[in-house]
Amino acid sequence: MANPLRPAILAASRSPRVKSAITHAPGTRSLVTRFVAGESRADALAATRALLDSGRSVSLDHLGEDTTDITQAKVVVAEYRSLLGDLGALAEAGEAGARRLEVSVKLSALGQALPRDGDKIALDHARELCEAAQSAGVWVSVDAEDHTTTDSTLSIVSALRADFPWVGAVLQAYLRRTESDCRDLAGPDSRIRLCKGAYRESASVAFQSTAEVDDSYRRCLTILFGGDGYPMVASHDPAMIDAAGAEARRTGRGPDRYEHQMLFGIRDVEQQRLADAGTRMRVYVPYGAQWYGYFMRRLAERPANLTFFLRSLATR
Ligand code: FAD
Q1: Scanning 71, 133, 141, 197, which has the fewest C-beta atoms within 10 Å of its C-beta?
Q2: In the CATH hierarchy, which top-level class contains the domain 50-286?
């Protein structure tokens, strides 16, 4: 999309040799810390407190994806349960008002891709987390991954919503199917995070040009703001932020009936400006040791990030 090298970077990132080279490159750590709150839960909670103090809300993501064995999936569940315990304590101590705290989960980290009963395992694990989140007074949203998982993910979200109607879904405007998914999911109280999409997808399933993705994003905003749900506008793009404001005015939605979302470390000044202006602003805060996939998607999004990274290697 905005970065012409994006497909090549995302393809190369799947190679174990590239992974090893990037993970061990001397300049990597300093750039990773720009996008990731830290490796430990304590790091994530420190970032959370600072964001809450600044008037922003948070969604915490324990980094990890593509879990290939059940033991690892259970480790992920245990970490989220501990995180939810800590967030519940924050809420109880009065440090965060209702629903200013959320966790984001990737179903592939919970076992969705396991060869036997992956969908069921991911659903059971997600249900366990939703129960813990409900007791802690914390929201859950289910991240969107590559398009081969979309049907499974949306059906798991729908099953979760039967018991936990506040569970959020994520839709990616670059997918050709998303306008129709927005129509299906814009019902009462439905929390939908709309993002552009961060994976490498072919033209058969996804719009390829910036203009097409942006047009799709605008059409999806119109559907979501015109519906009865709670739109979550996940974009750093000033044009999409303006479009959301225009939709809010057109549909008469007050600032408590939608929110903006951005990623930790990206457009921090704009995040604060929106929060100070009385708009709900939630920051997606990733933490953990498995930062590679997330980091590569951020590098791929923006040529300047890649240039900065390559320059930092060259100057060592
Ligand atoms: P762009 O046109 O890509 O960027 C607009 C401007 O934002 C850029 O000009 C630049 O100023 C700034 N910017 C954007 N990206 C970067 C960056 N990496 N580094 C520095 N500046 C940058 N994608 C998924 O596929 N699944 C998900 O579940 C998902 N969840 C997300 C949750 C949140 C809260 C957010 C904000 C994004 C999420 N994404 C997810 C990523 C999203 O799909 C995009 O890849 C990403 O947000 C960049 O798109 P953009 O709308 O910001 O617009």
Answers
A1: 71
A2: alpha beta
